[in-house]
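hey m, so remember when u said the C-alpha cells were messed up on ur end? i reran from scratch. heres the input so u can diff it against urs
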Amino acid sequence: MTELNFDLIVVGCGAAGLSTAVSAAERGLKVAVLERSRIEERGGQTRWTEAYLRMQSHEEVTDDFDIFLAENAGFYQDPDFVAETLGERADWSVQTRSQPFIDANVIATFADSVPGTIAWLKEQGVRFDFLPTQFLTSTQPRLLPVGGGEAIVECLAARAEAMGVEFFYQTTARSLINPELNRVTGLHAWSAERGALQFNGAVMLACGGFQGNLEMLSRYLGPKAAFIRPVCKGGYFNRGEGIRMALEIGAAGAGEFGNFHAEPVDPRSGISEPSIFIFPYGVLLNKEGKRFTDEAAGTVDAWYERVTRQILAQTEGIAWVILDQKVRQIPNYTLGIRTDQPAIEGATLSELAGKLELPVEQVERSIADYNAACRPGNWKPLELDGVATEGLQPPKSNWALPLDTGPYFAYPIISANVFTFGGLKIDEQARVINIDGAPIDNLYAAGEAAAMYFNNYCGGTSVLRGLVYGRRAGQNAAQVLA
C-alpha cells in the first residue's frame, strides 16, 4: 500500500471541500483533495446547482435566517427538554453536545460568518448577483453566484491548484485511521488508477450525504426510497462513506436520518434538476385520479418541499399537475417549469386522463368538485391572493381558479432527493463531535456530511453552510497544526 503524507486530507470536491482546501492552503498547509469523480465532473452536488443563497444583500443574511434554522434544527440546547429527558440534575450544557439536535452556537456562528465568507469568495474571484430564480412567488430574496455552483467549483479549484493543493480524482475514502480512541491520523482510500492508498494527516469529510446509496436510503427512509432519485448527477456520487466511517469510530450522529430535502421533478427527464414548480396554479392528482393536498398553502419557495413529500406518499410516489390555458396569463410562468420534456396535452379532461393512464371518470369528478368549490376573487398570480376554494377537502388556499379552459395539459411529478438530512454532529469549528460530546482530534466535517436540518429544509442555506464551515475547518486545522 502506498503511503502519502499531508497536513490535511479533504474528502470531497464540492463547496465544503474546496473552501476547506483553499482556506488551509492559504495558511501554509499541505493539502490533498480526494474526489470520486473524474476531473470533468468534479464538484459533487455544488457543480449542478444554481446555489441559491439566503441573503438580502451581499453583506446581510435574511432577517429570518437564524430563526428559521433554529426552528428546523430539532430541540437545539433546550434546557427544559433536556432536563425532562436526562433528569433535573443533568449538566445539559455538556450532555446536549452528543444529542442529535443542533447546538445553538453552530447556528449563530453560521449566520454571523456568512458575510465574511461571501467577501472571501469575492476575493477568490467568485461574482454574485440577484438573478431570476425558478420561484414565481417567494418569501425571501436569493443571492446567486454568477454561473451557479459550477462557477464556485471551478474558481476555488483553480485557486487550490495554484497554491499547490494536490487532487486525486477517481479516488474514494474507505476508512479512517484511528490508532488511539478519539484521534484520527489519516485514512485508507482506493484509487481507480493506483489501487490502495494510505493518506496520513488530519481529515476533512466533505463527501456529501447518502442520496446515491439505495441501501442506506432504504435503511433510514424505508421502502419508499425506491421511488426517490437524486436531483442531479452529482448526487449519485454521494454514497455515505464519510458519515459511515466516522460513526464507526464513535462520532455522534445528528440531523434527521429518516428525512431529506425533497424537490418536485419530472421523472421523464434525464437532465439535472428538471423541477416542476408550477403546481400551485393547477390541481395535483394521484394515480387514483384524486386530489390529496393543498397545492397552494403559501409561496412556492416555502411550501414546495411539504407538497413534494405528500407526492412521495402517494401510490408509486407520483402525481400529475393538471393545468389549463389560464396559466399562460402568468408573467414568465415558464420559469416554474425546468423539465426538458413537453407537457402532455388533451383537448378535453377525458382525453388528457386517457393519455396519463388515469381513471377518466375519477379525474373528471375530481376537477368538477374542485371547480364547484372555486369562488370569485382578485386573482394575483405573483403574490398570495387568498383566492381559495370553499367547502373542499383538501382545500386550495390561493390562486384557486376553475380549470375550464382547454386544451388541458399536465406534467408528472416525483420526489427528487436533493440531499439527506442525517449526518455528523459538528461544533462551531467544524470539528466532529463524538458520542460523549467531545471533539475528535484531527477530524472535521462540513456540507451534507455535517447534519443541520430536521423536518424542513431552510431554503438557500445548504451551499452556504458548506462554504462557511469548510472555510472554518481550514482555518482551525491551520491553527492546530501550526
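this time it looks ok to me. The domain at 262-416 is CATH 3.90.700.10 (Flavocytochrome C3; Chain A, domain 1). if urs says something different then somethings off w ur setup not the seq
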